[in-house]
Structures are given as C-alpha cells and as structure tokens.
C-alpha cells in the first residue's frame, strides 16, 4: 500500500513515472521531491505550506550586495542552518520569510537600534510573543553577518527583549482537580503523569516508548537540546505505568493506535485539560514548571533540577530555587514576627503581682 501523504500532497503518475506535488484547493501545483521520507521533501513541503514555491526560489534574482536579502540567502546556505534539526528549521523558516519579505530590500549597514525598533518591532505592538520571536531570529542573522564581517557589532544589543506572557506552573489544587477528573487507567492520566513526574516537554513525552523504561528509570533524549537524560521513576508514575496495557511501541498513541504528532498530541492534551474544568492558562508546559517548582520546594538544588529537567544553563534552574527560597524565607520571617495584640486588659494576671486590674477609666474593679 502506498505511503499516506501529508495534507495537500498529491501523487500523480505520468507515463509510468510517479510525481509528488503540493496543491492547496485550486491553487498552483508545486512539484516536490519524489521521496516523502527525505529531508529534501520535508523542507520543500514546509516551504510550500508557508507559500514559498520552488519556482519562486529558483527565479529569485541575485540579491543586491549588502542587503538583508543577501544575508538571508547566505545564512540559508550556511552550516549553522543546514545542520539544524528539521523541526528547528521549520520554526526558523517562517520568521526568516517574514524578515525577507518585508525587509529584504534594507541594507545591513543601515541597521541601528532605533530603525530595528521602528521598522521591525513596532508593527507588532500588542504581540509580545511575535516581537520576541522576530528579534531572536534577527539576532541570529546579525551574528551570521558579524561572522561574515559584514557587520562589526550587533546593532540590536541595546534593545530589551519584549516581555511575553510566561507560562505559569500548575498549582497543587489544579493538579488534584485534573487527577480527580482523569483516574489511573485513563490515557489522559498517563500523559499527565509522564509530564509531571519527568518534567519533560510535550515534544519529548509524546515520543516516549516502553523500551525507554528500564530498571526503574525512563530514558529521554530531548528533541530541543539533544540532552540525554535518565530519570528515576517516581512511585506515582510507576503506579500509573503498571496500570497501562502495553499494546504499542510508543507509550501514548492516538485512538487509531498510531503515534501522536506533536501538534496533535498538544491539541488532545489541551482537550483533556479543558474537560477537567481547568482554566485556559493551565497549559501542558505548566506541568514541566510544576515539576521544577515541586523539586525546589522540597529543597533540591539548582543542579538537581537542572539534571531532571535537562536545562542547559544553571540560571534556568535557579529560577525555581529562588522562588522556593523566597517563599520559605517569607514564611519564616512572618512566623518570627512578635505577636502584638492591642487589648484594654493587661495580658498578665494581676493577681500574680498582688494588684487589681484597672478598667479603661482607671477605676478599680
């Protein structure tokens, strides 16, 4: 049986030869590489999804020297980009195309902090996440330009990172609420436990296999960082795993018995969270935050948290310990405050000193 193709991809046979092409609705048909499992096919397919056709790429005129268009073309040919993971390329490509389309005509030498703010970032006012993503991508291109000696310094250095809405940790009450809705034995509880007791991202949890569970530990190779982790199985997670029937290679699967895609898994888990009556800001990534928070609250060091969550820098793990230390210190400080009670009657028993307590007016009782 022929391999199932991604959305909008057609398989056509012409004079005995098979061709694959991309076509959305009645739009232009775009030729794709013949092997749907190849990296070339994946790159061409993603480019077609965002509207960049091979014809446009091939017909693109040579970029004017010193322009952002020339910088983009140079970066896309560089080892820095070519050797990225396919998922990382996919995220980069949409931002690169936005910069290329809107700003490709601008000169690299003309980039200044004020021009970057006015032309690149201000049009995205009200969208802090989009501004931050664009600024990160622009800085990657600027570093490439510095490496090529097209720039001597980073003109974006003085620009402060936009503050995006940080995903928060789940509270203990929210954790209990989810567990009450989805009992042990349900697929939703299984996914929840894998997140909470391993502290991993959804891109790693949905790929976990039963072969990763060995000798009371679960092995993880993080997709984002490449970090190789071995995480001890918490008794609660072991209990949930023991209650799960092992029918497939991957631990979590769709209703059709197939492994999830990362986006499909995210949508499915989002539905489970909503069905539990939890607010929209209870996001799957918040369970990773909850894992870090709980580790810090029981006194784990930043190095321990870093080992479990797979952080690359100590500063990321230190955020959890700072928050936990602040809470502990604040509680200890308040507890130590002297108790001050305003009372009209003396707190000691007058008879102990042979005196009679006086009323507010100063008269004896």
Order of helices and strands: EEEHHHHHHHHHHEEEHHHHH
CATH superfamily of one domain: Intergrase catalytic core
The largest pleated sheet is described as: 3 strands, antiparallel
CATH class of one domain: Mainly Alpha
CATH topology of one domain: hpI Integrase, Chain A
How large is the count of helical segments? 15
The structure class reads mainly alpha
Distance between the termini: 102 Å
Number of strands: 6
In the CATH classification, which architecture of one domain applies? Orthogonal Bundle
Average pLDDT across residues?
84
Rounded to the nearest angstrom, the radius of gyration is 29 Å
What strand order characterises the main sheet?
A: 1-2-3
Low-confidence stretches: 55-60
The fraction of residues in strands falls at 5-15%
Q: Rough shape?
A: globular
Helix % is 40-55%
Structure notes:
This protein has helices spanning 39-49, 54-58, 68-77, 79-82, 86-103, 113-121, 128-147, 172-181, 187-198, 202-205, 235-242, 262-275, 285-297, 302-309, 314-336, and strands at residues 9-14, 17-22, 30-32, 213-214, 217-221, 228-232. The protein is mainly α and 365 residues long. The longest helix is centred in the last third of the chain and has 23 residues, at 314-336. Among the domains are: 61-147, DNA polymerase, domain 1; 172-332, Intergrase catalytic core (hpI Integrase, Chain A, Orthogonal Bundle). The strands form two sheets. Strands 1-2-3 form a three-stranded antiparallel beta sheet. The chain has a three-stranded antiparallel beta sheet with strand order 4-5-6, with no helix packed on it. Strand 1 (9-14) and strand 2 form a beta hairpin. Residues 55-60 have low confidence and may be disordered.
């Amino acid at each position: 049986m022929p391999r199932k193709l991604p959305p909008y991809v057609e398989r056509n046979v012409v004079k005995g030869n098979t061709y694959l092409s991309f076509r959305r609705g009645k739009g232009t048909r775009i030729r794709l590489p013949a092997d749907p499992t190849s990296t070339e096919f994946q790159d061409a397919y993603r480019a077609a999804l965002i509207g960049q056709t091979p014809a446009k790429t091939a017909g693109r005129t040579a970029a004017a020297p010193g322009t952002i268009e020339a910088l983009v073309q140079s970066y896309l040919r560089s080892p820095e980009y070519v050797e990225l993971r396919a998922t990382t390329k996919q995220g980069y490509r949409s931002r690169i195309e936005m910069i290329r389309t809107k700003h490709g005509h601008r000169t690299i030498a003309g980039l200044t902090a004020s021009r970057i703010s006015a032309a690149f970032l201000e049009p995205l006012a009200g969208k802090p996440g989009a501004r931050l993503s664009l600024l990160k991508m622009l800085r990657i291109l600027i570093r490439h330009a510095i490496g090529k000696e097209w720039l001597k310094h980073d003109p974006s250095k003085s620009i402060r990172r936009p503050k995006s809405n940080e995903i928060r940790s789940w509270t203990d009450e929210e954790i209990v609420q989810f567990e009450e809705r989805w009992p042990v034995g349900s697929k939703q509880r299984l996914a929840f436990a894998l997140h909470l007791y391993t502290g991993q991202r959804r891109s790693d949890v949905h790929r976990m296999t039963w072969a990763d569970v060995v000798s009371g530990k679960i092995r993880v190779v993080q997709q984002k960082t490449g970090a190789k982790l071995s995480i001890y199985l918490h008794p609660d997670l072991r209990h949930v795993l023991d209650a799960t029937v092992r029918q497939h290679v991957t631990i979590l699967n769709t209703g059709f018995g197939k492994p999830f895609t990362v986006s499909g898994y995210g949508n499915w888990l989002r539905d489970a969270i909503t069905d539990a009556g939890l607010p929209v800001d209870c996001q799957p990534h918040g369970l990773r935050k909850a894992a870090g928070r709980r580790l810090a609250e029981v006194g784990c060091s930043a190095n321990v948290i870093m080992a479990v969550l797979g952080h690359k820098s100590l500063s990321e793990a230190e955020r959890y310990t700072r928050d936990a230390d602040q809470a502990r210190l604040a509680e200890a400080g308040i507890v130590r405050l002297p108790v001050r009670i305003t009372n009209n009657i003396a707190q000691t028993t007058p008879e102990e000193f042979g005196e009679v307590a006086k009323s507010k007016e100063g008269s004896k009782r």
